[in-house]
Design a protein that fits this description.
Helix content is 33%, strand content 19%. It is an alpha/beta fold and 379 residues long.
């Protein structure tokens, strides 16, 4: 699998600096964003019907952040609207006919079931009614991978859904948002993106929703797919290069519950000198499932394992994942999963294992054998 060349990285740096200038100017000039948005309506100069229709659903995040005086580099998330973001990036109107809707204006640390359901329903409606050829979601990076994985499991159809964010706010001198936005629109508008499920596009890479994860707290080179690698690369000079064929990808789709909330599933983090208290606490607060972020191959202390076995006997779903960044959790190697009634997450990290467990419980899938088949079927 090839890596981006130094020349490509240099081109990205120059492009990111140039694309960041409009957002910086907007932040410094009070009221400038609104005026610029009206003056640069996306798609206005394109011939009607000649470009793909991309629906932009904005949720907030760092990509829509503005500087905050509390400290150097500080910012507030979700201060800029989706329309303003789209209008601020030169050339988007040449790629697609864009329409933007604001779903929320939050930092992704506050992402919740209500916003997830709103996104899923709006995307499905847009596809079912043929309102869009693809969907682009602007999102904070902290929980971007969970939103991508959730949508990958509930949205039906083969039209592209792309999720994009940034590590630096819109008002930063070296903002990465404009470049990421441009490339995300490129991917969402490309017919070769169909049938690939939900994709994350950041820092010149296209990552699949199942495997993508955030790996660094502050670097723009943070998203990777530890066990898979990127599914493609993208830049304005070289275009899009997918590393694999689409191959008729079919999402496993689960129905959303009637309300606005998924079942309660807790993640319990394993560590040295672990006891049963975190597990007992999760049970006392009504957890329907527990995901173990285990050490090594999804293991934990004897006290914690005993508590998890007791939980499983009460009908609480127990899934063994790992706190280790890469690798698979294997059945019946270090832990007797068959005896204890446990499920292993394969290579899904704890946060994604939690999402799938919630969807399975909501769909009435609770038998350990059936749960295990569903986890294995994500491959």
């Amino acid at each position: 699998m090839t890596k981006p060349t130094a020349g490509r990285a240099s081109r990205r740096q120059r492009r990111t600096f140039m694309l960041a200038i409009p957002l910086i100017s907007f932040a410094l000039w009070s009221g400038g964003i609104g005026a610029a948005a009206q003056a640069a309506e996306p798609g206005k100069d394109a011939a009607a019907g000649s470009l793909p229709r991309i629906l932009v659903l904005a949720t907030g995040g760092t990509i829509a952040g503005q500087a905050d005086p509390r400290a150097t580099g500080a910012y507030k998330s979700g201060q800029i609207t989706g329309e303003q973001l789209m209008a601020s990036v030169p050339g988007l109107d040449k790629l697609a006919k864009l329409s933007a809707e604001q779903i929320s204006s939050i930092g992704s640390q506050d992402m919740n079931d209500k916003v997830w359901f709103a996104l899923a329903r709006r995307i499905q409606e847009a596809f079912d009614k043929n309102e869009a050829d693809g969907v682009l979601i602007t999102h904070g990076t902290d929980t971007l991978e969970e939103t991508a994985f959730f949508l990958d499991n509930v949205v039906r159809g083969d039209k592209p859904v792309v999720i994009v964010g940034s590590m630096r706010p819109a008002t930063a001198v070296s903002a990465d948002g404009p470049g990421n936005l441009y490339e995300a629109v490129q991917v969402a508008a490309d017919p070769r993106s169909r049938g690939r499920g939900v994709m994350a596009v950041l820092n010149d890479k296209i990552q699949g929703a199942r495997s993508v994860t955030k790996t660094n707290t502050t670097s723009i080179e943070t998203f990777s797919s530890p066990n898979d690698g990127p599914i493609g690369y993208v830049d304005t000079a070289g275009g899009i290069r997918f590393m694999t064929q689409a191959g008729g990808f079919k999402r496993a789709t689960y129905q959303l519950p009637a309300g606005e909330q998924l079942p309660r599933v807790e993640i319990v983090y394993s560590h040295a000198n672990m006891d049963a208290v975190p597990i007992e606490d999760a049970i006392s607060h009504g957890a329907k499932g527990i995901v173990l972020a285990g050490v090594g191959d999804g293991n934990t202390s004897k006290s914690a394992l005993d508590a998890l076995e007791a939980a499983a006997k009460k009908g609480i779903i127990v899934v063994r994942s790992t706190r280790v960044r890469s690798g698979f959790v294997t059945r019946n190697v270090e832990v007797d999963d068959d005896k204890n009634g446990f499920v292993v997450s394969e290579d899904l990290n704890p946060q994604k294992a939690r999402v799938l467990t919630q969807l399975l419980i909501a769909s009435g899938v609770t038998a350990p054998a059936d749960l295990q088949k569903a986890f294995t079927a994500t491959w």
